[in-house]
Design goal:
Layout lengths: L6 H17 L2 H8 L7 H10 L18 H14 L5 H15 L2 H12 L5 E4 L5 H4 L19 E6 L2 E12 L6 E8 L6 E8 L13 E5 L9 E13 L9 H37 L1 E2 L2 E2 L4 H29 L6 H22 L1 H4 L6 H15 L2 H11 L11
Parallel strand pairs: 1-4
Antiparallel strand pairs: 2-3, 3-7, 4-5, 5-7, 6-7, 8-9
Helix pairs in contact: 1-4, 4-8, 4-9, 5-6, 5-8, 8-9, 8-10, 8-12, 9-10, 10-12, 10-13
């Protein structure tokens, strides 16, 4: 692994940081999350059309930039610093890689260029609250989380005209505004039980207008407003199978692979958020005076900040390694990096609230935006102890099997 960044990678970071400093401060974030789409559509257009962010990590043949997970992780780190609400995670980190891995050539050619240009956003819809299970982050994703032939989940039935979906998916990231839904559904009954992915090519506009018949979207009130979530209800909805009619297609394997790369990207995003909230806290303790001196000069405060700095830097190292390793084809590294990064963000943001004193405990203070991001991400992709437990189980550390060295 080469720990130095290329000139191109540094340019991605510099350009994004300058743009977000100008256009995505705390007030702009609060305004954006109150909009219909849950994000600043003008900023998204800039990120997509001028910087090519949605297509950063997929091939030029489909309108992408041709970079790797590492570049996408670096971009996400900058977005994490400002907590910029955008459909990048749902579209470029979860949706597009699945389309690239499992989609037919016609599907990829028709949809990926539109995703790369920012014209279409995508969302991955999985039944219930099983996103972290579907992605293989906290357990085996070859179970019956999609429905298992029983009531609940999302069921797919073949009809004369194709496929029809029926069921409900919760916690769908940016599901209320996505123009393309990738829906995980159970099919085959008990005899040939399988989980497959389906496309619902929706004509939904950014303002929520339009949409396919039978699809009901409800934007949920979530702890972290910068990470929009929705409930998707499907009632006899026309759908298109993702990929070809092939019994050998490994949907669970593709989901786990995307989950590993998504965890690496999310780890970098969490590191960016932790680094920024630590910076703001250091700035504050240098200015706030108590007993005639800056509170940052007290040894107890210095020790706390030093501990936070070490934790953030350790999480950054883990996140960078995970991004590089995922791009190099190494498996099962993203979950551990995500666990360390989420823990660092949770501790750093909670310490920021404490060290800001009375003002830090008001919901209006920006420290709470970071605290809510930490808590919200653990609810969506964790918790931390389950991420680590699954990684340990996968490595057979405590099962009497092979011991990692």
């Amino acid at each position: 692994m080469d720990a130095t960044f290329t000139a191109e990678q540094e340019e991605i970071r510099r350009t994004l940081r300058e743009l977000l400093l100008k256009r995505c401060g705390p007030e702009e974030v609060r305004t954006a999350v109150q909009s219909e789409g849950g994000y600043d559509s003008a900023l998204w257009d800039t990120l997509a059309q001028q910087l090519g962010l949605p297509g950063l990590a997929f091939p030029e043949a489909y309108g992408g930039v041709g970079c790797s997970v590492t570049e996408l992780a670096l971009a996400s780190e900058e977005l994490g610093r400002s907590l910029a609400p955008s459909p990048l995670l749902a579209t470029a980190v979860l949706g597009a890689p699945l389309l690239l891995a499992l989609g037919s050539e016609d599907q990829r050619a028709a949809l990926l260029p539109r995703i790369a240009s920012g014209e279409v956003t995508a969302a991955l819809a999985v039944p219930g609250a099983s996103l972290t299970t579907a992605l293989g982050l906290t357990g085996d994703n070859r179970g019956d989380w999609a429905g298992g032939g029983r009531a609940g989940g999302v069921q797919a039935r073949r009809t004369d005209g194709g496929w029809r979906l029926y069921g409900q998916a919760d916690q769908v990231l940016d599901g209320h505004s996505a123009g393309l839904l990738l829906v995980a559904a159970h099919t085959g009954g008990f005899a040939r039980s399988r989980t497959l992915l389906f496309l619902v090519r929706d004509s939904l506009g950014r303002d929520g207008s339009g949409g396919s018949a039978g699809v009901t979207r409800v934007r949920l009130t979530s702890l972290d407003e910068t990470r929009s979530q929705a409930r998707i209800q499907l009632r006899h909805v026309e759908a298109e199978l993702l990929g070809e009619e092939d019994e050998t297609s490994d949907v669970a394997g593709a989901l786990a692979s995307v989950g590993d790369s998504a965890a690496a990207v999310l780890a970098s995003e969490a590191v960016g958020a932790a680094d920024r909230v630590l910076e703001r806290t250091v700035e504050y303790v240098k200015q706030r005076e108590q007993f005639g001196r800056a509170i940052g000069s007290f040894q107890a405060v210095k020790h706390r900040l030093a501990d936070l700095y070490v934790q953030v830097q350790a999480a950054r190292s883990a996140a960078y390694y995970a991004a590089w390793a995922t791009g190099a084809g190494e498996e099962r590294v993203g979950g551990l990096a995500l666990a360390q990064a989420l823990e660092a963000l949770r501790i750093t943001s909670s310490e920021a609230v404490q060290l800001h004193g009375g003002i830090g405990f008001t919901w209006e203070h920006e420290a709470h935006l970071y605290f809510k991001r930490a808590a919200g991400d653990e609810l969506l992709f964790g918790p931390v102890h389950r991420l680590r437990e699954h990684a340990a189980d996968a490595a057979r550390l405590f099962g009497g099997g092979e011991v990692a060295v």
